[in-house]
Each structure stands twice: as structure tokens, then as C-alpha cells.
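Q: Start with the shorter request: fold the first protein.
A: Done. Sequence, then structure:
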Amino acid sequence: MDNAQKFTLKSASVFGTLGAIVIAPIATPVLWAALAYGTYRFASSVYRTAKLKEAPRAEPSEDTWFF
């Protein structure tokens, strides 16, 4: 498991736990589905961001400047 996956797992579990605490008193199936979908969307965006931050960045060369 790479660092992006570990970070995503930690972030999504906190998001899901806090969401479950908030909607537990109401507990309708629609709210649980919305929480599951929201957690999925949150986790996918966190994973994409973490992967972009891990990607190696090339230094711009002098040939790419157009002045």
C-alpha cells in the first residue's frame, strides 16, 4: 500500500465516521446512501490529489520559454 492509499484511507475513514455520527439519530436509508456516496467522492478526490503531489515534477528547461 503506497502513501497515497494510506492517506486516503485515513481521511475517508475520519470523514465517514464523523458523517455517521451526525446522521445516526435520523438514520434513514437515503441519508446512509448519501453518506456512502459522499465518502466515495471525498476519497477519490483525496486520492487524486495525493497522487498528483507524489508525481515527480520536471524542472522547466530554458528551451521551453518563449519570449
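Q: Next, the second protein, separately.
A: Sequence, then structure:
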Amino acid sequence: MRHTAHIILLIALCGAMSSAYATAATDSTSSDATNTITEEMPSDAVTATADTVRSDGTWHKLARLLRQAQQFLDSAAMRKVDPHYIEVPRKPWRVILRYKETEVDADYKTDLSFPEYKERLVWSLCFEPPISASVGIWAGYRGTGISFSKSLVKNAGHYFSISSTGAKYGFNFRLRRFSTEEATFNAKGYIDNELIYEETVHDKTYDPVWIRSVYLNGYYVFNGRRYSQAAAYNQSVIQRRSAGSILAGATWYQSSLDLSEPGNAPFVIASKDIGRIKLHQANIGLGYGYNLVPMRGLTINAMVMPTLSVYNRVKVCKYDYNYELNYDNLPTDGYGQWNPETRTWANGEKHKPMDEAGKWLEDVEGWETGEKTSYGRVQFNVDARLGIAYNWSDYFVGLQMQFNRFSYKMDDTKVVLIDGYARASFGIRL
């Protein structure tokens, strides 16, 4: 019933409600007259009338399901709520305009040891795109709705989310895909644990690096009678007095990092030939949230939830290229033309050293050579949020911030993803 209610509600956002009631009423009062008239109608007219009746019946069913969905969401918002602490607004529909700034960091670190030489190499690759700004809109009934936003920065992608909140639960789905060309490469060399050299290079990649993330989060509020997590984040209800609660949460996070484009060959080669990474992680946690109400209409929320990953799956796809890094300044002449069918140069070599002038970009090619899937150990992550909301009778404003850290470890490689945002919003109740 809960899933059906949510689906029907989203259909209602397109305005089907009013027309459904009107059509259903007409159908109910005129059924007897229709049976009499059809005896005198031509067959084509009778067929058309029958189609109309079937269509009216469909709209009648839709109106009934919509009414059930509204009743369910009203009940979820008001059930067992203490009105001295939580106010459920009389007007259930809300439209919110949002301005959001997002920051995402993807750090890829490898620690390699060579005991026979007493050497150790530590290198990291960090993709840190500029903070991106976006504008969007959220629309929904009670605590359930959908939102879409468009980035104001080139190649920063789109955001799509679905959210639902009740007195004791909350659910949020967020999808994002974007590209970046900002990269920082750091390498450190040790002998007998003594730092011998360190090099850091910050530059743009020749081809874009694509990052995609899916975030699915749900939580349960133990003190839902007096505390509302939604009061400071989507303003579906209003917190009237200060209160707090323990929260139990679960998160599914998956992301992919794709730097396999031929122009990024130097980064892939330095990353042990890993061109694509797909990460899947399930987290469970227990945290605490508190709403401070210093004055009527103003709510300040803080929530922290440490989590443990109970499922870690990492899939890497390796690539090979017709070029290699030129560590020893080897000559690049005499290789001839590249043959893509045999994947060899004219002189029989499979790899040609990259030249400093960048001519290798003219005929570099890459291909996937294999993939590997591994399951990592338990990791510690954190979900932290801060929200401020102020309500008038029919209008409200808000400021929300959220920080998520996800980490994965596979063999000698560790991946850390940081996803955070700050958002300002203005809404109206209808």
C-alpha cells in the first residue's frame, strides 16, 4: 500500500486530481440514461460511447487511488504526533525553489612496498572539481515529492531526487552524473622508511573524467512523537518546541569513476592500468538529532550518524594503451605507424614511449584488458547534517548542509569519496 500511494501521488503532481473527480461524478449520475440512448444510436456511436465509459472508469479508479494515497500520507504525517511539539500545516501541498552548491572529492591512493629493495612507493590521484552551483525545484504533497535541478557550471551535470518523510521515517533517493578535468597527482618515494622524493602535479586532464553517484538513504525516528527530522530539511511540518531523538539509519551508496578515455592514458598507467572503478557500499548506523526552537517559527537542527559498511564491493576494469610512460627519456623515433588490428607498431613493439611535446595524443588508443571484483572489509563512515528553517503561515525559508564520507579498501589501494552540499530554499504552502 505504501509503494502504491507514493506512485499515485507522483502522478497527481501533473494535475489529474480535479479532472478525475469531475468525470467520475458525471459517470455516476448518467449511467441509466446512457443505456436508453444507446438503443437508438448507430453502432459506431455505441462503440465510441463504450470507449468513453471505460475511460471514465479508469479515471474513477485513479481518483479513488489518489484519495487513498492522500489519506495515507496525511496519516503518516499526523499519526501519534504531539501537537505541543510538532505542528502539521493545514495546507498539504508545497513548492520549493532551491539554490545549491555541491562539492565532491574522489581520492585514489595506492601504497606499494618492495621489501627486497627496502623501498616503498605511495601515490595518490585526486579528482576535485570546482564547487558547482545549481538551481532547482521541489514539489510534493506532505513529506513526499520529487525534485530536479540544473547545474550553472559547465559539465557539472544534473541532479534528480525523490524524497518521502513521515512522523517516524524518512527516505531519500539522489542521482547525480557529472564530469571533471581537474586532477592532482602526488607521488612519494621511501627507502628504509625515509622520504627520498615527493612530487605533486596539479593540472587538467586531456579528456574528461566521468563520475556518477547514486545515494539511497532511509532512517527511523524513535521519538517521532516530539521530534521531526523533516522540520528543518523539507519543512513538511513545523517544530514548535525543542526536542531530540535517537535515529537508526541505512544507506546504499554506489558510484563509478571513469578515466579510461585515451587522453587520460598517463593517469591510467600510473594507476596500475585501472581505467574504471565501480563501488557499491551498504551502511547501517545509529545517530542522534536535535531540533532547537529558540523562537516561534525558527528551527535549528543538527544530526550526526556514525555508520559501518556491512557490504563493500569494488569492481575495477583495467586498460592497456599503445603508449607507455617515458621514465628514462627513451627515444621515440623509429616506431613507424600504429596497426590497430595487430595492436603493434611497425617495428613490432606494443608500446611507444610518450614524448614531452604531446604528439602521442594524436594517435593514442586504449582498450579494456580485463576486470576484477573484490569485497572489502568493514569501513567507518559518517553522515552529518545541519539545517535551519523559519516558517510563516504559508511561506518558509531554509538553509541545509550535509556531509557524507565513504571509503573503500582493496589490496594496496584505498578510495575515499567525499560528497557534501549547502542549500538555500524558499517555499510556499498551497
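Q: Describe the second briefly.
A: Residues 134 and 152 are 5 Å apart (CA to CA). The radius of gyration is 29 Å.
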